[in-house]
Structure formats: C-alpha cells, structure tokens
Amino acid sequence: MSFFGDTINHFIASWGYIAVFSIVALEGFGLFFLPGETTLISAALVAGATGKLSILLVLLAAFCGAVIGDNFSFWMGYRFGFPLLRRYGHYIGLRERRLKFVQYLFLRYGRPIVFVGRFVILLRAWEAFMAGADAMPWRRFAPINASAILIWASIWGGGAWWIGEASTSLLRWVGMAIFLTVAVALIAGGLYFHHHENEFEARADEALPGPLRAHLPSDLRLTSGRGFHFER
Fold it and tell me: Which SS3 state, helix, strand or coil, does residue 88 take?
C-alpha cells in the first residue's frame, strides 16, 4: 500500500468520523489537494470490513462536512469572490470577457453546474466558491448542492461499504473508469469551447451588456441568438 493510502488509513483509525468530516469539509472550503473522496471510500471500507465504524455515521459525517464546507465556500465567494476574480483572474486565464462568460454560465445554468461539479474532483473544490462569486442565489444553490452531496456520499461511501475490503481492486477500477470518462468529457468540452470561444463570449456580452461588474440573475437579457435563450 502507498504512503498516501497508509496516511489516510492511519488518520481514519485515529480520528474516525472526525477525519471524514474534517477532510471532506476542508476540501469543500477550496483545498482541492485534500482527498475528501478517498477518505470517504477508505472509511466506508473500514466500516464494511471490520465493523469498527458505522457506515451510517460515516455517510452522515461526509454529508455534514461537505454541506458545511461548500456553504462556507459559497459565502466566501459571494462576499469576496468577484473582486478577487476581477483583479487576479487573469493569472488563471479568466480575462474580463471570459469571466463574463463564466458569470453567464452560473446565472443561467448554475444548478446543473453545481450538481455535476460535486462529482468532478477539481470542480468539487471550487464550484461553490464560483457560484457565490457569480451571485447565484443561495436558495437555488443550497438544495441542489445538498442533493448532489447526498447522492455523492451514498454512491461512493455506500458502494465502498457494499463491495468490501475483498474487492477493493474492483472499486479502484470503477473509480478509474469514472475518472477517465469525466476527464475525456472535460477535455472534449475544453476543446469545443476553445474553438467557439469568441462566439460564446459575444453571446455572453449580449446577455450581460456593458462593462464587467457583479451581475444578478435579473440582469440577464433576452436574446434571439442561436443556441442561447435567457429568462428573467
């Protein structure tokens, strides 16, 4: 077993549910390098193989940690995110027109982005912050985020517990297949966006006219542009 895996298992053995809660919460805060999903799976395997942990409490710890972490990240994004992105976004490739396009995506498609983001490693750590920074209403964010977390914890935690220690290799293969599928989809989406970037940004300018600023959902303008329809 790798040093990384040994460290996670030692942390779980020492701290149990607190380990699951804290790592998943900190990942939700934006610390993308922390292995929230791996910690959940490892704790669920311990619950299934040894019975030293309750799978229900493992799932509850993961759910509560993710909800608290994501909502804190959302609040940070809502309070401080847009000024930070506007000032420093160009360092991560978010120049003004691209940042406006990201605003449009969250204002128009925020709920599906938040839902899908929970299942994608890098997006999971940042989608809540970006939703807050782009003024997605909390009443829309909170229920879809909680639903996604519930499904995420149930699939990975419940699946690991059901498969058990004897079939850990199967779980790894399933996880790798899902990761590769998502990676291919992200690469394909990135290439498609790069090819049509000017067109997408022009439509975002039409939907959110004027200089870049913190927009609200009511700022979206109706447009007859092909492929995009906006509603107040």
Answer: helix
